[in-house]
């Protein structure tokens, strides 16, 4: 992926809603100058394709930022079923803003992942908090810093793995010792992260959101062997937009960059949104998108808004070096969201009729 392509894509986000293109182009160049070192490497295999539909995993600054009182999100991904034991990932999250302080958001996320023959399982529970800061009186510009605290548990089944020491020269003998000096088959630790999200909001059909987050800042030990293996810091950068095309159609572009140690992943693409109905308390909309993950896959996505519900479906078409085994098949992913609104009864003032009438 060329540096110029990503520059033009980022520049799209910063200009679709503003007339001051010179200032915003400078901003885009500053972002690129900081992160350009990451744009020439390949991506990871374990990921979320629908990265905009798992908001508080994407950035803690997203906690509590939505139109409603409570938000519930569920995500599921099944990958590499045609190659080996499938990689299965599931996530649940709930977030809200405080009723008395709308600028404070809180969120809780549960994440479980199981991969490979050894059933390496990762379970994580994260607490997230954000704070809304308005940069302009009309709330057109705002920023939301956030913090993330997680408890991570990893476990592996050593008995399900094969080692070269168990090959006796003729065949594999599972009764032979592995000679592996692992210390434990499970590990639990805490992790800390921070993030910030900026939003430009012109109206509900023309806005831009961008953010950056850093996770595992305390470098927790994830090693099962006797030596300490600190987990790499993960940096996540994202930007997304909403741009009105005509009375019923909107463009919804997005980009997500994840960097952790030697692993690099860039997802970019766009969906188009068609509003079926939005009047008198009735809302329906359809989504269809085409996306690209660098040197790994392309994928399509479809989605449906139905009142306060959203459901999205995506499928990856793999074109990496794994194609001989994958036969182009990658993974299927499902995302759901529900936003709950408190019922606010209309306040009616009653007048007391005097006795003499």
Main traits of this protein?
357 residues; disordered N terminus; mainly beta; Porin; 15 strands; single chain; 14-stranded antiparallel beta barrel
Question: Could you characterize the architecture of this molecule?
Answer:
The chain has a single domain (41-340), classed as Beta Barrel (Porin). 10% of the residues lie in helices and 49% in strands. It has 4 helices and 15 strands. A 14-stranded antiparallel barrel has the order 1-2-3-4-6-7-8-9-10-11-12-13-14-15. α1 (3-15) packs across α2. Mean pLDDT is 81; it is low at 1-19 and 21-45.
Strand order of the largest sheet: 1-2-3-4-6-7-8-9-10-11-12-13-14-15
SSE series: HHHEEEEEEEEEEEEEEHE
Structural class: mainly beta
Give the integer mean of the pLDDT values: 81
Largest sheet: 14 strands, antiparallel, barrel
Q: What is the CATH topology assignment?
A: Porin
Radius of gyration: 24 Å
Tally of contiguous helical segments: 4
Please give the alpha-carbon distance between the first and last residues. 83 Å
Please report which band the strand proportion falls in: under 5%, 5-15%, 15-25%, 25-35%, 35-45% or over 45%: over 45%
CATH superfamily: Outer membrane protein transport protein (OMPP1/FadL/TodX)
Total of domains: 1
**CATH architecture assignment:** Beta Barrel
Q: What is the CATH C-level name? A: Mainly Beta
Helical fraction equals: 10-25%
Q: Find the count of extended strands (DSSP E, 2+ residues).
A: 15
Q: Any low-confidence stretches, pLDDT <50, length ≥5?
A: 1-19, 21-45
Describe the global form: globular
């Amino acid at each position: 992926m060329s540096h110029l392509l990503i520059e033009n894509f980022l520049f799209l986000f910063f200009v679709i809603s503003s007339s001051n293109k010179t200032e915003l182009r400078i901003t885009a160049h500053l972002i690129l100058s900081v992160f350009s070192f990451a744009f020439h490497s390949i991506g990871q295999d374990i990921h979320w394709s629908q990265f905009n539909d798992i908001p508080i995993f994407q950035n803690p600054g997203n906690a509590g930022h939505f139109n409603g009182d409570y938000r519930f999100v569920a995500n599921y991904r099944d990958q590499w079923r045609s190659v080996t034991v499938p990689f299965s990932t599931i996530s649940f999250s709930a977030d809200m803003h405080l009723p008395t302080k709308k600028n404070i958001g809180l969120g809780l996320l549960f994440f479980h992942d199981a991969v490979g023959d050894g059933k390496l399982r990762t379970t994580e529970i994260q607490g997230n908090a954000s704070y809304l800061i308005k940069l302009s009186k009309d709330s057109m510009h705002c920023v939301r810093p956030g913090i993330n605290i997680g408890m991570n548990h990893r476990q592996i089944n050593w008995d399900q793995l094969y080692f070269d020491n168990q090959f006796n020269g003729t065949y594999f003998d599972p009764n032979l010792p592995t000679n592996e000096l692992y210390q434990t088959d499970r590990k639990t630790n805490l992790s800390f992260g921070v993030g910030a999200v900026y939003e430009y909001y012109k109206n509900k059909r023309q806005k831009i959101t961008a953010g950056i987050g850093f996770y595992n800042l305390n470098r927790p030990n994830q090693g099962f062997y006797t030596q300490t293996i600190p987990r790499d810091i993960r940096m996540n950068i994202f930007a997304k937009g909403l741009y009105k095309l005509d009375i019923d159609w909107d463009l919804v572009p997005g980009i997500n960059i994840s960097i952790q140690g030697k692993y690099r992943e860039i997802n970019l693409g766009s969906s188009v949104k068609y509003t079926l109905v939005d009047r008198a308390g009735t809302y329906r909309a359809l989504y269809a998108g085409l996306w690209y993950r660098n040197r790994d896959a392309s994928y399509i996505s479809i989605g449906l808004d139905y009142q306060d519900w959203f459901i999205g479906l995506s499928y990856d078409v793999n074109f990496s070096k794994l194609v001989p085994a994958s036969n182009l098949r990658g993974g299927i992913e499902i995302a759901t969201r529900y936003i709950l609104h408190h019922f606010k009864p209309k306040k009616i003032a009653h007048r007391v009729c005097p006795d003499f009438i």
